[in-house]
Structure formats: structure tokens, C-alpha cells
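Title: Comparing notes on inverse folding

I've been comparing how different people in this forum approach sequence design from structure. To keep things fair, I'm posting one structure and asking everyone to reply with a full sequence. Here's the target:
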């Protein structure tokens, strides 16, 4: 029997930057080899503050490849329905925990009270409005009930000697998983342009709130590493170069 007290419900996501080699100056040498050849080596430790104009021009003109000479690795914990969306971003490298090789932990996502519940508008342009207290209660109760029942089934099958890869089929998409994802700034800008909702974007996107929570945390880390590029991205309508 599953001890329901051992089941954890969370309403957040974890995003930690575990490795990075990402500086605004990385953009400079990559861009300047075009006109300076070997002299671009002088830009390897260049002062990006003094070259703000160049970085802004590259973003605005969508000269994207100079933004690829850097790397950021994030550790992410999020529900599997978020990973289904995250893994669509192909210009990235991923490694995820396995439901075949380890017993999945009883950690499930349940929307927090600040999660808007009711959808209005048309596909591709939804607006969300807060639900009533009854709707929030219903979502929480139903999610918790299903997760507890599903995890109990999973445990019963494991105890009966069924393989993890078979027993896991009863688990809901709201169960948490964990992965590492490595991206460069160009790819991250594409991800942020699509997975954050910003009305001031040149091309506003309407992502699911839970992947936006992941995106917002990645954005905060990247902004610290490459502030000049980050400012240029925002200034130019959050379009990936
Ligand atoms: C709001 C929203 C709703 C969505 N709804 C759906 C949906 O209903 N169904 C669905 O299936 N998907 C949906 N998606 C996923 C979407 O179609 C993309 O798969 C996802 O956003 C990844 O974007 P990407 O291809 O630009 O990223 P990446 O895969 O990281 O690619 C980055 C860039 O590389 C280039 N590139 C990569 N691979 C190729 C290739 N094979 N050929 C040519 N160029 C390539 C493209 O320029 C691309 O923009 C949705 C996404 C968003 C943001």
C-alpha cells in the first residue's frame, strides 16, 4: 500500500544552471572574424559594453551564428507534460531520467492558486482568466485523487514483479521528471520567443503557463551571463536572430 503522506504535490518547477561558458564577448570574436580575420583573436576577451552597437546590430539584422559560440547547461525538474513541449526544441541536447531504469518518485504537479484556469478566445490566441474558488478546489482534488490512485497501481504492479517500464504506463503526465538540457544563446532566444508570453514581442506567443515557468527561470540565468545580448534581444522585439 502507498502511504499517501509520502506523495509530494508541487506547483513549481526547478531550473538550475549547472555549467556555462557564455559571455557577450563570445559574440564579438565570432562576428569580427568576418572583417578582421586573425586580428579577431584580440576580441576573445573583448569589452562587450563597448561593442553594444555591434551586438544590437547583429540581433536586429538577424545575423544569428555569432550567438552560437557559447553554452549553457540547465538542470530541470518539471512535469512530463512540460517536457513533451520542451523536447520539441531540437536545437538543444538532452538527457532525462529513465522510467525503465529507476522507480519513479511520487512527486506530482498540481496547479497553484495563482494558475489561471479558464480559457477564453481562439486557438493560438487564448486568454486565461482566474477560476472560481470552486474550480480551483475541483482541480486540486481531482488531480490529487488520480495521482494517488495511479501511484498505488504502479506500486502494486512493481510489488507483483512487473517491470518498471510496464508498470509506469498508468502514471499521469503530471508526474515530475528531471533532465539536463544544453543550449546556446541563439537557440535559447528562439525558445524564449516562443515559450514566454510578452505582449511587447514583435510576434507575441501564447505558451502553456507551466513551460513559461521553465522559460522565465532560464531567461533570468541567461540575462546574468550575457546582459548585452539579452538587452539587444528585448530591444529588438524578442525575435531570435
Ligand atoms: C504556442 C505554441 C503552440 C504549439 N502548438 C503545437 C501543436 O499544437 N502541435 C505541435 O506539434 N507543435 C506545437 N508547437 C511546437 C512548435 O511547432 C515547435 O515544434 C516548437 O515550438 C519548437 O520550435 P522550433 O522548431 O523553432 O525549435 P527548434 O527545434 O529548437 O528549432 C530552432 C530553429 O531551427 C530551425 N530548424 C530546426 N529543425 C529544422 C528542420 N527540421 N527543418 C528546418 N528548420 C529547422 C528552425 O529555424 C527552427 O525555428 C507549439 C509551440 C508553441 C510555442
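Reply #1:
Here's my take.
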Amino acid at each position: 500500500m502507498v502511504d499517501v503522506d509520502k506523495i509530494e504535490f508541487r506547483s513549481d518547477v526547478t531550473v538550475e544552471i549547472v555549467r556555462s561558458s557564455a559571455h557577450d564577448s563570445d559574440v564579438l570574436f565570432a562576428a569580427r572574424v568576418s572583417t578582421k580575420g586573425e586580428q579577431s583573436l584580440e576580441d576573445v576577451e573583448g569589452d562587450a559594453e563597448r561593442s553594444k552597437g555591434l551586438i544590437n546590430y547583429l540581433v536586429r539584422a538577424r545575423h544569428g551564428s555569432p550567438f552560437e559560440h557559447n553554452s549553457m547547461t540547465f538542470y530541470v525538474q518539471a512535469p512530463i507534460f512540460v517536457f513533451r513541449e520542451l523536447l520539441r526544441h531540437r536545437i538543444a541536447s538532452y538527457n532525462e531520467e529513465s522510467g525503465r531504469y529507476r522507480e519513479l518518485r511520487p512527486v506530482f504537479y498540481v496547479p497553484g492558486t495563482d494558475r489561471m484556469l479558464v480559457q477564453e478566445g481562439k486557438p493560438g490566441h487564448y486568454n486565461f482568466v482566474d477560476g472560481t474558488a470552486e474550480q480551483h478546489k475541483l482541480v486540486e482534488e481531482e488531480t490529487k485523487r488520480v495521482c494517488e490512485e495511479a501511484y498505488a497501481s504502479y506500486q502494486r504492479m512493481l510489488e507483483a514483479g512487473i517491470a518498471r517500464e510496464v508498470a509506469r504506463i498508468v502514471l499521469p503526465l503530471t508526474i515530475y521528471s528531471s533532465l539536463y538540457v544544453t543550449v546556446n544563446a541563439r537557440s535559447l532566444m528562439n525558445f524564449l520567443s516562443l515559450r514566454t508570453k510578452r505582449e511587447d514581442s514583435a510576434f507575441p506567443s501564447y505558451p502553456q503557463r507551466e513551460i513559461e515557468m521553465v522559460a522565465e527561470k532560464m531567461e533570468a540565468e541567461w540575462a546574468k551571463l550575457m546582459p548585452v545580448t539579452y538587452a539587444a534581444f528585448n530591444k529588438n522585439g524578442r525575435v531570435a536572430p
